[in-house]
Task: inverse folding
């Protein structure tokens, strides 16, 4: 999870660099390429997964809501920064386009100091000592055996669950309507008014 976030941050920095250099290169295609790279990045789902897994149970709901909060805050800051008096002028708009690389750079520098998520270490890597060490680093010293037992129960449940590939999921008739709903909701999220808010 952590490595995926780090790679994603590299992608965002490259995208920001491409968009920031588009005026110098006099290429609107660079803006399109940079925006496409930003669009295919996995920031939101990865943030939810990693932050949810490293948070203690009592703070997990709050931690998962931070993604939506910072997404809305980022849109608001972007719209404010895009005003003609700030970065929306003809000479400064490349800086505005490249500003998406700043949060990625901050995360790229700070994330290596955080441990891998405990559930990932225990469920996928089978590293119980690494899991305990990560829990102590994240949540402090104390008795965290209940959380480790919960992860072990989840791992046991996952063994009996068949994981479908994307193609199998699309072919499965039982999930078809749920899949249609998710695709429609995701495709129309920009029409819900979040930009206005």
Result:
């Amino acid at each position: 999870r952590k490595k995926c976030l780090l790679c994603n941050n590299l992608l965002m920095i490259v995208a920001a660099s491409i968009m920031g250099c588009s005026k110098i290169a006099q290429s609107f295609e660079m803006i399109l390429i940079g925006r496409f790279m930003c669009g295919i990045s996995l920031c939101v789902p990865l943030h939810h997964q990693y932050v949810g897994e490293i948070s203690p149970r009592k703070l997990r709901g709050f931690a998962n809501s931070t993604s939506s909060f910072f997404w809305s805050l980022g849109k608001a800051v972007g719209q404010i920064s895009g005003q003609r008096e700030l970065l929306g002028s003809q000479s400064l708009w490349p800086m505005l386009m490249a500003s998406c690389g700043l949060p990625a750079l901050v995360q790229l520098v700070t994330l290596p100091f955080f441990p891998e998520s405990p559930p990932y270490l225990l469920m996928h890597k089978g590293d119980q000592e690494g899991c305990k060490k990560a829990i102590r680093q994240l949540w402090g010293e104390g008795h965290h055996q209940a959380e480790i037992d919960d992860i072990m129960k989840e791992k046991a449940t996952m063994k009996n669950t068949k994981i479908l590939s994307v193609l199998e999921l699309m072919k499965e008739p039982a999930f078809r309507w749920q899949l249609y709903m998710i695709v429609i909701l995701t495709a129309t999220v920009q029409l819900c008014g979040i930009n206005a808010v």
